[in-house]
Amino acid sequence: MIKYPNGQKFIFTQKAHKKSAQDISFSSANRGISLEEDINLSNEYYLGAGALLITKRPTPIHVSKVDYSHGAKIVNAFFEKQSTTDYNGVYKSRYFDFEAKSTQLKTSFPLNNIYLHQINHLENVIAHGGIGFFIVEFSSLNEVFVIDAQTVIAAFHHGDRKSIPYAVFKENGVLVPLGFNPILDYLTAIKTLFNL
Amino acid sequence: MIKYPNGQKFIFTQKAHKKSAQDISFSSANRGISLEEDINLSNEYYLGAGALLITKRPTPIHVSKVDYSHGAKIVNAFFEKQSTTDYNGVYKSRYFDFEAKSTQLKTSFPLNNIYLHQINHLENVIAHGGIGFFIVEFSSLNEVFVIDAQTVIAAFHHGDRKSIPYAVFKENGVLVPLGFNPILDYLTAIKTLFNL
Fold this sequence. Notes:
The structure is a homodimer. With about 200 residues, the first copy, chain A, is α+β, with helices and mostly antiparallel strands. Helices cover about 35% and strands about 30% of the residues of chain A. The first copy, chain A, has helices spanning about 10-20, 30-50, 115-125, 150-155, 165-170, 185-195; strands at about 55, 60-65, 75-80, 85-90, 95-105, 110, 130-140, 145-150, 165, 175. In chain A, strand 2 and strand 3 form a beta hairpin. The longest helix of chain A has 20 residues, at about 30-50. Chain A starts with 9 loop residues before the first helix and ends with a helix. Residues about 1-30 of chain A have low confidence and may be disordered. The interface of A and B includes residues 47, 78, 95, 97 and 128 of A. Strand 3 of chain A pairs antiparallel with strand 3 of chain B.
């Protein structure tokens, strides 16, 4: 019998593979989208509880052609890279801005899916007194950390470093409590990280 | 000879009508897009000057079908309404959130293109200590005002009022200085409006 370390049934795995042929949300981006869903649900909880207001920026799409024969139907367009970060909002009048990323690695967080314009944006956020951070999931470890954007910015600009060691998250980040409501209590972790 | 009250030449009107069949950015949304361009350019100026950091949320698009035969080409999608506002950002660590609207009317600002979910969002912004406002252009008068979101929220919830009189902007809003750099110096007006 084949062992599935995460306890998934085979039928689920089959469905997942079938889905991956049609849907880009599966494959390597799958963990990231799960993290995103967890964050979105946590944000809904925070909003309802009056604790925190965070909104997610829509994915930018470049529209090349629109067919107006039946309403406005977009018939040619493509996804663009987010020029800033995915999330921002307000906590007790303070501006929050963050990016969420997931890795399956256990020993480091690779920086190759963070872009220079996102780093520049977070540098501007900090310069204007905003609170910039990353939510980073080590999916194989089932651990989620918050870490000051300045730590990621410094690593990004460090010429010969392509990743941030897991140990840096243990030392400089704060572990996010996992639960039901909210699923990811990252606000509690942020309050600890930034002494809010 | 036919008189055009706005002084447009006929050739321009022809081109405009031709364009309007292909491009929804013309027609009634035209003035709003000019205001949007002016705000975007002003935001670039503010960013370069280190005065203010504002980002515009991308227009949300619902993607129904993607063709993966040559990369990821979106072949069926449609525009969605922005569920929040168009702009937010940070000024001296304070959270800013605003919507920009333009009207060709001279005596009032109609509320029919402001949506309940935008009002709810701005109510949340204020509840969390953020600074919420509208930038409203009276295009026929070449005047642009900033006005506290609470004024618009109150009018929106006022059962029998479908618009805000121009006089309210004169009394409770602040006129935005128009210039070259920035084109719309709305930050100066906001500092006056909110005593920042």
